[in-house]
Automatic annotation (TrEMBL):
<feature type="domain" description="UBR-type">
    <location>
        <begin position="118"/>
        <end position="189"/>
    </location>
</feature>
<comment type="pathway">
    <text>Protein modification; protein ubiquitination.</text>
</comment>
<dbReference type="InterPro" id="IPR003769">
    <property type="entry name" value="ClpS_core"/>
</dbReference>
<dbReference type="GO" id="GO:0008270">
    <property type="term" value="F:zinc ion binding"/>
</dbReference>
<feature type="region of interest" description="Disordered">
    <location>
        <begin position="1"/>
        <end position="21"/>
    </location>
</feature>
<dbReference type="Pfam" id="PF02207">
    <property type="entry name" value="zf-UBR"/>
</dbReference>
<dbReference type="Pfam" id="PF22960">
    <property type="entry name" value="WHD_UBR1"/>
</dbReference>
<dbReference type="GO" id="GO:0005737">
    <property type="term" value="C:cytoplasm"/>
</dbReference>
<dbReference type="InterPro" id="IPR036390">
    <property type="entry name" value="WH_DNA-bd_sf"/>
</dbReference>
<feature type="zinc finger region" description="UBR-type">
    <location>
        <begin position="118"/>
        <end position="189"/>
    </location>
</feature>
<dbReference type="GO" id="GO:0000151">
    <property type="term" value="C:ubiquitin ligase complex"/>
</dbReference>
<dbReference type="InterPro" id="IPR039164">
    <property type="entry name" value="UBR1-like"/>
</dbReference>
<dbReference type="Pfam" id="PF02617">
    <property type="entry name" value="ClpS"/>
</dbReference>
<dbReference type="InterPro" id="IPR014719">
    <property type="entry name" value="Ribosomal_bL12_C/ClpS-like"/>
</dbReference>
<comment type="function">
    <text>Ubiquitin ligase protein which is a component of the N-end rule pathway. Recognizes and binds to proteins bearing specific N-terminal residues that are destabilizing according to the N-end rule, leading to their ubiquitination and subsequent degradation.</text>
</comment>
<keyword id="KW-0479">Metal-binding</keyword>
<comment type="similarity">
    <text>Belongs to the E3 ubiquitin-protein ligase UBR1-like family.</text>
</comment>
Length: 1787
């Protein structure tokens, strides 16, 4: 047992005998001892030299259980500790004792003794931002906190932002962490003093304080260690037990029956749901409680779930264990422990003391030195506390672990000497820790072994550990021993799937990387010994890996099981950086390199040993023969894992630096020869080639995946790239002809090289498949030769710098296409610090093309002069990239007027060691192969020829020619004789003979290029004298003619295509336009309402008027529609099948003016109509919004479409995966444009189609406003005063009983009383044609469906269409829809009538539904009565009748009340006609009165400057009579004087009223179907004057001078309650919150945010509501709440209230937008933050600085204001490919 708890306990008791004498000096302690008394006793004993830890423990023995014991039936959710008591009883006495007097003062003095700190050391909480500097950081783990970063030089450098996972600390002030600028401004101050020794520092501390501190620290540490690590959970160490016999007080202090706790621990195998379910059963609690428990367990690592007597507690334990072991996926049950309450209390006490200690350590350096001495002090008998914790970390629960880890960070890591000492102890126990970690199941960040990153990354410490503590060997021995068990019979590693233990063990590889991350500048013998010792062990491991996961080609049957391959690649992935670093280290010391190289050669030899017996065979080509290894790749196992060969390749690149070479290494037993060395790698290459040739088809995906990763940018540096280097090493060591024959043999294409192959040998075997295979194998062989001879950009192979290597990669990426920064960065390999070094060269070779206006990404374009370096056979290209690159280069060359081929680029020279490689190109075998390929090209019967082979041969010849040109230009060189040698093989004549060969048509330009280059050399060499330029000219002529022909054909094709396109476009236009409809203006498109629009556009000589007697005639709107479902065309008017539009009704808070009332409103939407029946409450402004995409369908077609949808949905399994529409809410997508809908709106005929005869203006109908006003006064009076009995008395006044409706009765009565009965009598009853049309078309049904949806969705009312509130809901929805459309247009700076076709269609159909719906409900007497009541109710409210119950003026929205009145006034018309003349007259009067109300309201709201505020007023103060009245009213209402000019005053009033007038104008346009005035199509064309003219009203000033206005205003204001006015004018929609420019500000902000439900704990997914700015703890159990019976996450809940179900959030840490709709829909979207390359960084993966992009933020703003969030989500969900389902209700 490694824990010390038990042992120590016994030690204590054995020691206690020696304390007997001491005890006599203490008074008897008991519960009544006060803290002050205690401090006195401690002090006295200290002064007398008697004090020891026993004295403290005796005190804690009583006090700790007293404070921290949970009571009976308590649990984690209900425990509350008395924090004041904790401080007073537990902590204060310790501080008091240490200080001797006022602790605060003493601590302050102590910290002032300190030098200013030179090291920051701020410990990061999870999610806190950290900054690393890519220019100065020693490695990427070196980070700064915000404060330091902002005060450092690095903020001007290339920095990266990331988020801490918790546990690390700020490296500011650590010179080893930074190459330069190690100190921020703050910590630089500490630099000067930091040189001071620790003795001096300690000497400054008062000795008595030091002595007391020592005792307290030692006691606290030991106590906490003992209590927390003790496995004896039933008992305490003896000296802390209270209830020993004879102590009555103890008996009293604890309850009669001893309390026990059932403690449930966290593990990583059980899910949240399993724990919750188990708890519900075990302790019989509610879901909510169970969730809370589970949350605490997850956070703290454990939780008390029950406090009771032992039997009960134990029973709970048994139930939990039984429950959780039953779950099939988990072998182990959850860990549950029953412990006595007082034991638990001591554990809590110990944690508190440790926390206190950690805080105290921050006080001064001296404390930290004392602490580390005590914590790391070991005796012969026992380990130090640090050692103990390192040994038993995993036995602790999460919270206890963190307490210790943080204590160690604050106490041990802030000082270099302590850190080093700790690192040595850490290294000593590394094995133990890692073993524990592997057996444990918690995350690595919760293991103490994760502190390695703090220790091993410090260069001096890591070098010290390597040389003195043999750390490399310790780590590697541990890792190899973990691997050793997994070796197979051949001694190679072999892994099963899901190897979690080894997966955890691989953390060792990260530690190795940390240790090696900084190369030593100088070596000493110890360092060499340590490094080489480690390397020996590593070499063993590599030996086990060499050849692992070997595959054999499957013949006959397909592979039955896919073999495991991922694990080996995982291992490679983690090991690769270590290997790269090892090679780097070797490059700095000759001795080390020599030893390592020798070691590896030996190892390769050992591995080959078993293969030495491999048979050999004699091979012959072109008169060269060689004995080659006979290993048939297609029948024997081959592996992709060859780390030994690869590290050997890497080492070879270093040899020449120290004047070494392969031949210099003698005396190695089994020293492998070069042929043997390249053999394994060659096999892999051949296997890859065979896979390409389709020979390994039966081996399944496992092999395909391996090859993919082998060449992938993430793995290739230590795989594919090294293999090519190794083959180059081989090529430089082996005679060229031999080398080629070995390769041909391995590729198994020796037969192909024979002259008679096509004629004789091949004809024996007629197999097509074989021919194809051979063809491809030859291509692959040639390709490999291209790579071996052409890839010279690896430093060491070619004369290049690392920058040139990076440049070559970038050039080839940019030759494919121009790329954005992040994509380019991703395509480049990373070094061990995750850098691609792109910035260091990119500006030299490429231009950055800035993004165009926020939408597109900025891209890099290669500079022209670098295109010459393009090599089409670049070895990192995939096949697809190769063809794309070639295509785009040919295109570019065409534009630039260059030759249409991609000739090989000139190459850099090989280094001395690799020089021999170029001889391959002029070797006999190579030239023979060239010859063979050329011959087969002209042989039309050759079946193994391909154009690619020809292309590759020309490419190789090109390389050779460049090589010769280089040598020619040099004086006194050995020379290169390609042309000489090629002559012997007739290469030039062969090439010339192929000119015009149709088989190689695609490469004829390249052939010309090659011949030309060839001849240039001949000329230079003086072999030939004639110039060859004119041929080139002819060529271009030819190609020009060809070009012209091509162009002509292309033209014809284009014309034909255009014709087809035009046809298609006509058909598609609508559809495409509709998709963009939200963001475009109507002027560019024509919709189904196109005809209407164009008619409405007609500019008349007289400007149009919408309301009143002067009304312009309604426009003619008859038209035809095509059903999108059955394609039938039909006019809207007349009998026949009716049309509908898919329509979406949503509850909206866009126009909400007082968001604080949203919660209340949402909880009782039903009450909204009750409280404010006739208009929208102007304070809250929440109502249904209606929108439609305007795609017509027959009502019947739509119904069968919907039925089909529902039937299909029923067949789907439940619970359904989240879908883009919720059929339970009757949602569906428009069949044409996929627009989200939840109801339909009928498409009704226009006004004109109902008018039997155009009604001419009737003079008699001209009822003046005053007359009307008088009548209304009477009407409203009668409403209030006339009791039923009294009204009988008045019966004789008028004879109105002949009308069967009360409706007419009241108004008529009033009109008769004022003597204008005539206006009512003129209109004979017409036949009921409106109703008939509606019924014929089935539109009455559709109207009901539509209106019912408005009621249900808008107001949570689920009652049928007879519902009395139906018409109220409709009127509010109408008013709201017009109101917010008007607002949207304003915010988009569009003209009032600059509507999109969708808006046009929506408003027009909606208005017609409003016109017709009283008729649709015509037959229903009840509805007619309801409408009538509503009309009079609304009238009363607008009129503000005295003594009525109508809402007072500041609770009335004038526009929405006007809409109610206009819509309901239809009851006055006969059933046959939609609108009557009388109504037209009355309409204007209603508008005028509503406007008057708006003007009066604006007095209440408008803010005018007072005299004091106005220093100097511009215009005159003269007022017109109208203005005077206005001003008087204002001053009366507001009780203050107006000091500003009259023009300013009127301007302000108008500003308030303008939105109202705009709404009235917009409504009039659609409701009365009057053409819009042309000037209002443009933004700013809606002056008050033109608005008033269009509406038909006179100016404000004129209105206010009227007599009625005065009495009306008086009445309104008199009824007004005295309270503050809550109205806001002018009305504006809610905008999204302001976001900071710099993204890191947001991150800093959320770092401060803690979960509101988990006292002070950080939130994992802090999410900001962009509508109101609220910060939420998203996607976490802790903040789930119940919403409408479902438990939902914080965001879903917030969105329900804040946006009526719609939410726009910013997930700060993940840096993405989250949109939510309802409880089942949502999507993630890119954030409005961009890096300097114009790219977003979703998920914050790159960490480059991000800044707000206004344009893209406005996009979200627009989406919100246009009510398109839900639709946007549906589109996103519909198009998303992701298989991952998100439970949107849990976010
Ligand atoms: Zn810092
Ligand atoms: Zn700092
Ligand atoms: Zn820097
Ligand atoms: Zn149809
Ligand atoms: Zn549509
Ligand atoms: Zn909000
Ligand atoms: Zn939370």
């Amino acid at each position: 047992m490694r824990t010390l708890g038990g042992e120590q306990g016994t030690q204590e008791t054995s020691e206690s005998s020696s304390w007997d004498s001491v005890e006599q000096l203490t008074i008897n302690l008991d519960l009544s001892t006060t803290p002050d008394q205690m401090v006195e006793i401690w002090k006295k004993n200290f002064d007398n030299g008697y004090l020891n830890s026993r004295h403290f423990r005796d005190y804690w023995k009583f006090k700790v259980p007293n404070i921290f014991s949970p009571g009976m039936n308590c649990d984690c959710l209900h425990i509350v500790f008395d924090e004041d008591e904790v401080k007073r009883v537990l902590l204060d006495p310790l501080e008091m004792f240490i200080c001797g007097r006022d602790p605060k003062a003493v601590f302050k003095e102590l910290s002032e003794l300190d030098n200013p700190p030179a090291l920051c050391g701020k410990v990061f909480r999870m999610g806190e931002p950290t900054y690393s500097c890519r220019d100065c950081g020693t490695d990427p783990t070196c980070v700064l906190c915000v404060d330091c970063f902002k005060r450092s030089a690095h903020k001007q450098h290339r920095y990266r932002l990331s988020m801490s996972v918790g546990g690390g600390y700020c490296d500011c002030g650590d010179p080893e962490a930074w190459k330069t600028e190690a100190f921020c401004e703050n910590h630089a101050k500490g630099l000067a003093a930091s040189e001071e020794g620790r003795e001096k520092l300690m000497a400054r501390m008062p000795p008595d304080v030091m002595g007391r501190t020592k005792i307290v620290f030692a006691t606290v540490l030991k106590y906490a260690y003992q209590i927390l690590t003790s496995e004896l959970t039933m008992n305490l160490p003896q000296d802390l037990q209270v209830n020993f016999p004879g102590n009555e007080i103890a008996q009293l202090s604890l309850a009669e029956e001893e309390v026990y706790c059932t403690m449930l621990f966290n593990d990583e195998t059980h899910t949240f749901e399993q724990v919750i379910d188990t708890l519900k059963r075990a302790i019989d609690c509610a879901q909510k409680e169970a969730v809370d428990f589970a949350t605490i367990i997850d956070r703290e690592g454990r939780c008390i779930v029950k406090c009771s007597n032992f039997a009960t507690c134990n029973n709970v334990r048994l139930v939990i264990e039984r429950q959780t072991s039953r779950q099939p996926t988990n072998q182990r049950p959850l860990k549950v422990v029953v412990m006595p309450a007082h034991v638990m209390a001591h554990q809590v006490g110990a944690m508190r003391l440790l926390n206190w200690l950690q805080q105290l350590l921050g006080c001064c350096e001296a404390f930290r030195i004392l602490f580390s001495d005590i914590a790391m002090e070991a005796s012969s008998k026992e380990m130090s506390v640090v050692e103990g914790i390192l040994n038993c970390d995993t036995q602790l629960w999460k919270a206890a672990r963190s307490v210790w880890h943080h204590l160690f960070i604050s106490g041990l890591l802030m000082d270099f000497e302590n850190k080093k000492r700790f690192a040595k102890i850490f290294t000593k126990y590394y094995n133990v820790m890692m073993k524990d970690f592997i057996n444990d199941d918690h995350d690595h960040s919760y293991s103490i072994s994760s502190l390695s990153v703090q220790l091993f990354t410090v260069p001096t410490i890591s070098h010290h550990l390597i040389s003195i503590d043999d750390v490399l060997a310790i780590l590697l021995r541990f890792f190899t021993s973990e691997c050793e068990r997994r070796r197979n019979d051949e001694g190679k590693l072999s892994f099963e799937r899901n190897n979690s233990a080894l997966r955890r063990a691989m953390y060792v590889l990260y530690d190795l990387k940390y240790l090696l991350s900084s190369k030593p500048e100088t070596w000493n013998e110890e360092l060499r010994r340590g490094f080489l010792h480690g390397f020996d062990l590593l070499a063993n491991l590599l030996g086990w890996m060499q050849g692992m996961d070997a595959t054999k080609r499957q013949v006959g049957q397909h592979m039955e099981f896919e073999p495991e391959w991922e694990f080996a690649f995982n291992l490679h992935f983690k090991l690769a950086p270590v290997l790269s670093l090892i090679i780097d280290w070797c490059g700095t010391d000759k001795k080390v390199l020599t030893k390592v190289y020798r070691n590896i050669l030996k190892k390769i030899g050992e591995c080959l040993e078993s293969e030495m017996k491999t048979p050999t065979k004699l091979c012959e080509v072109a008169n060269h023969s060689v004995i080659s290894i006979d290993y048939d790749v297609s029948y024997r196992p081959v592996s992709i894992h060859l780390p030994l060969s690869r590290i050997f390749a890497g080492l070879n690149l270093l040899l020449s630096k120290f004047g070494l070479d392969y031949y210099g290494f003698e005396n190695i037993s089994n020293k492998p020869n070069p042929v043997q060395i390249i053999e394994p790698v060659l096999r892999t290459q051949v296997m890859v080639a065979q896979v390409q040739a389709g020979m390994w088809r039966r081996n399944g995906y496992s092999l395909i995946n391996q090859i993919y990763f082998y060449k992938n940018v993430k793995c290739r540096t230590e795989m594919f790239d090294r293999d090519i280097t190794l083959l180059q090493v081989g090529a430089s060591l082996i005679e060229p002809n031999e080398f080629l024959i070995h390769l041909l043999n391995k590729f198994d294409i020796l037969g192909w090289t024979m002259k008679n192959y096509e004629k004789n040998i091949f004809h024996i075997n007629e197999d097509e498949d074989t021919a194809r295979q051979i063809t491809i194998l030859v291509e692959e062989f040639l390709n490999l030769i291209i790579q071996i001879t052409g890839e010279r950009h690896t430093p060491g192979v070619g004369e290049v710098t690392p920058e040139e290597q990076t440049m070559k990669e970038i050039i080839h990426q940019l030759c494919i296409e121009a790329m954005p920064h992040s994509a380019l960065n991703k395509a480049l390999p990373e070094d061990t610090s995750h850098e691609t070094h792109i910035e260091s060269v990119i500006d030299k070779i490429a231009r950055f093309k800035k993004p165009i206006q926020g939408s597109a990404k900025g891209v890099y374009e290669l500079k022209d002069e670098y295109f010459d370096q393009f090599d089409v056979f670049f070895y990192h290209y995939t096949r697809e990239e190769m063809s794309r690159a070639e295509e785009s280069q040919i295109k570019r060359r065409k534009v630039a007027g260059l030759e249409l081929c991609c000739p090989p680029p000139p190459l850099p020279p090989f280094t001395q060691a690799f020089m021999p490689i170029s001889n391959i190109l002029q070797s006999d075998v190579m030239l023979y192969i060239f010859q063979t390929v050329f011959e087969r090209t002209s042989n039309l019967r050759a079946r193994t020829f391909s154009e690619t082979q020809f292309h590759m041969v020309l490419h190789l010849i090109g390389y050779a020619l460049w090589e010769e040109i280089r040598f020619l230009s040099r004086e006194n060189s050995i020379g290169y004789h390609f042309t000489d040698r090629a002559d012997k093989f007739d290469i030039l004549p062969l090439m010339e003979s192929l000119r015009g060969n149709s088989r190689i048509d695609n490469h004829k330009v390249l052939l010309d290029w090659t011949i030309r280059k060839y001849k240039e050399i001949l000329v230079k060499r003086g072999t030939v004298s004639e110039p060859v330029s004119e041929k080139m000219f002819v060529d271009t002529e030819e190609s020009k003619a060809e070009e012209n022909e091509k162009k002509r054909r292309a033209k014809i094709a284009a014309a034909r295509k255009a014709a087809i396109m035009a046809q298609m476009a006509t058909a598609q236009k609508n559809f495409i336009m509709e998709h963009k409809a939200e963001f475009e203006t109507s002027s560019e498109m024509k919709s189904a309402y196109g005809s209407l629009e164009s008619v409405m556009d007609v500019t008349e000589d007289v400007s149009p008027v919408a309301y009143g007697p002067g009304q312009t005639a309604a426009i003619d709107t008859s038209k035809k529609l095509v059903c999108i479902l059955c394609q039938e065309e039909q006019p809207v008017t007349g009998p026949g099948k009716g049309f509908v539009y898919g329509t979406f009704v949503q509850r909206s808070t866009v126009m909400c003016q007082n968001t604080t009332k949203l919660t209340e409103t949402m909880d009782s939407m039903g009450k909204v109509l009750e409280n404010s029946p006739f208009c929208i409450n102007p304070d809250v402004l929440v109502a249904p919004f209606v929108s439609s995409c305007g795609h017509p369908m027959h009502a019947s077609c739509w119904q069968s479409y919907l039925e089909g949808l529902i039937a299909r949905e029923r067949r789907r399994p439940r619970p359904r995966p989240s879908s883009s529409y919720d059929i339970d809410k009757s949602e569906f997508l428009c069949p044409l444009c996929q627009c989200l809908s939840n109801t339909v709106m009928p498409v009704l005929p226009g006004l004109n189609s109902f008018a039997t005869k155009k009604t001419t203006v009737d003079e008699k109908a001209d009822l003046s406003f005053e007359e009307w006003y008088e009548a209304i006064t009477l009407v409203t009076k009668s409403l209030v005063w006339v009791e039923p009995e009294k009204s009988k008395e008045n019966d004789d006044l008028v004879d109105i009983r002949k009308f069967d409706r009360d409706t007419i009765c009241r108004l008529r009565k009033a009109l008769i009383m004022i003597g204008r009965a005539d206006v009512l009598c003129e209109y004979p009853k017409l036949s009921g044609d409106v109703s008939r049309v509606l019924v014929n078309q089935g539109a009455d049904e559709m109207i009901k469906i539509f209106f019912q949806c408005v009621l249900t969705v808008g107001f949570d009312e689920t009652i049928n269409s007879d519902h009395p509130r139906l018409s109220m809901a409709i009127c509010q929805a109408a008013a709201y829809t017009f109101l917010s459309t008007q607002n949207y247009l304003e915010s988009e700076q569009k003209g009032l009538f600059e509507l999109s076709s969708r808006q046009q269609d929506t408003l027009s159909s909606f208005a017609r539904c409003l016109l017709c719906f009283p008729h649709a409900l015509n037959e229903d007497e009840l509805q007619a009565k309801i409408l009538e009541d509503q009309f009079y109710g609304a009238l009363e409210t607008l009129f503000q009748a005295e003594k009525s119950k109508a809402s007072p003026i500041d609770a009335v929205d004038p526009f929405s009340i006007l809409v109610t009145l206009l819509v309901c006034s239809s009851v006055f018309s006969d059933s046959g006609r939609v609108r009557q003349r009388i109504l037209t007259v009355m309409d204007l009067h209603l508008v005028r009165l509503a406007f008057a109300m708006q003007v009066i309201q604006s007095f209440l709201v408008v803010e005018l400057p007072t005299a004091d505020e106005l220093m100097e007023e511009e215009g005159a103060k003269a007022y017109t009579p109208g203005q005077t009245i206005l001003l008087e009213l204002y001053e009366k209402v507001r009780g203050k004087e107006c000091a500003c000019s009259s023009s300013r005053f009127i301007e302000e009033i108008e500003k308030c009223c303008k939105p109202f007038l705009r709404c009235v104008a917009l409504f009039g346009h659609f409701f009365c179907e009057v053409a819009a005035p042309p000037e209002m199509k443009d933004y700013g064309g809606d002056s008050i004057q033109s608005l008033l003219r269009y509406i038909g009203l006179e100016s404000i000033e004129e209105i206010v001078q009227k007599e009625w206005f005065f009495s009306y205003a008086q009445r309104c204001l008199a009824r007004r309650p005295t309270s503050e006015c809550t109205l806001k004018y002018p009305l504006r929609g809610r905008t999204l919150i302001e976001l900071p420019h710099d993204y890191s500000e947001l991150i800093n902000e959320v770092a401060q945010f803690t979960c509101p439900n988990s006292d002070g704990d950080e939130s994992r997914t802090p999410t900001r509501c962009l509508l109101c700015g609220a910060m939420l703890c998203s996607q976490s159990y802790c903040c789930q709440v119940e919403l409408q019976g479902v438990s939902v996450g914080a965001c879903t809940n917030h969105a329900h209230y804040c946006g009526a179900g719609v939410g726009i959030f910013l997930r700060v840490r993940e840096c993405k937008i989250m949109l939510l709709a309802g409880q089942s829909k949502g999507c993630y979207m890119p954030p409005p933050y961009l890096d300097k390359y114009g790219e977003t960084d979703q998920g914050l993966r790159r960490g480059d600085p991000l800044h707000l992009c206004k344009a893209s933020y406005n996009k979200w703003q627009r989406l919100w204001l246009s009510h398109s969030v839900q639709e946007h989500i549906s589109h996103a969900m519909e198009t998303s490919q992701s298989l991952l389902q998100t439970d949107w209700h849990h976010v």
